Amino acid sequence: MERRELIHWLVATAGLHCLDSLAPADLLALGRDVHRRSRDRALRALSRHAERTVAAAAERILPDADVSAFIDKMLGDWHTPTERERFLAGLPQLDSRCRTRSGRDFVDCTAADQVAVITVLDDEVTALRTDRGAAVANEHWFAMLKYLTVYGWCTSEAGMRALRLYPLPWRYDGCAPA
Fold this sequence. Notes:
With 178 residues, the chain is mainly alpha-helical. 65% of the residues lie in helices and 0% in strands.
């Protein structure tokens, strides 16, 4: 998959209406900027437990993603209050489903139990997409988590290295003579 295809896919599946109008290069720049600004910063949208849950879920969605700070920054600064509330209201489903399955919170479950719960949620979003369309499915809190995980990883240095986009293929001559 080419970088532009990936970025177009991210926007198309995002459910983030504010990002729909951005060009692929701008979307990439935004993601990189969010990573830079989310370092060494206190949590804004997520509680400590929610941040641990998001980090564990993101690891099951995309290993070595390390995107919990990115997701917190996006929720706090880019999502509407309604989108943020929907995400935060859905997140406890990971704990409740794991408690039903194994008697423990999501972060304390085995990797196999975490993957099983995430697989069921992903299947529910896929069924919703088939039955009611992408627009409805993209509103689901788990679709938001999955999107933010992939977007965060793709715009991180580790993700860009894995996609062979780092160092960036273009150059910047900020002090070049006119």
